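Table S4 entry, Cobalamin biosynthesis protein CobD.
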Amino acid sequence: MSLFLSTVAAVAADAIFGESKGWHPLVAFGQWAERIEQRFNPSGAGWRSHGVSAWCLAVLPLTLLTWLLSQVSAFGWFVEIVALYIALGLRSLGEHARPIVQALRLGDLSLARERVGHMVSRNTEQLDASGVARAGTESVLENGSDAVFAALFWFIIAGAPGVVLYRLSNTLDAMWGYRNQRFERFGWAAAKIDDALNYIPARLVALTYSLLGHTRQGLRCWRQQAPLWDSPNAGPVMAAGAGALNVQLGGAAQYHGQMHQRPDLGAGPQARAADIERALNLVWGGVVLWLLLLGAWELFSA
């Protein structure tokens, strides 16, 4: 099966079925990663070398197994499709974001705060309606890059092993990549590897968002505002996305009881409920654009 058809099949499967409501391979991987972390980082005493060893033990055997299975001619094509399907979070992104929009439109701010709290790590108890909409829009833009486009990128570049390597690395960053006492040293490798794997995809996503919205403004915000953001990959994605949507994001946010004054992103009015939907449409439009470009590349390179 061609790369284009495999990609389309996986995207279609995600759109139709979404994430499994029962057992999920990434949940099992998370449990395995917890055991590894307990072994290599007891009481938060693990060094960077321990983190590197733990990352290799968690990621490389499963990546190698995926490669071996994908080489079997009888069902290698199926392994490719399933690997990308498991890694994608396109439908899940909408399933988490749209209930926030519904709660805001019903005027139920308490419910909206609760629902956006499932998507972001900041404190949401004191957010007003605009703050909820801002948090939801930021999450859609950033998670669209991490859970959708980066998975597509590594699948296109390196097939099933590439997308498995990326998705497991991204999961470990979410588990170990914290700058706190327990993970400052041990989680260093997970955070740096995830940054490296997301570097090119994030910039392609920033370009994609810009092209599908207010292009000049998106590119300008990317150029001027992204360097001010503390994350080398979230900055370009959210700055370009905010500019493309003509909405203002960023600003003050409370994390773990402490207020952080983040740089302003984008331009235009404060975020509203509709901007969460517009961000979702931007992600979906980007996926369609990437599929069309992949199909065209495969057609003309044949």
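The first strand starts at residue 248 and ends at 255.
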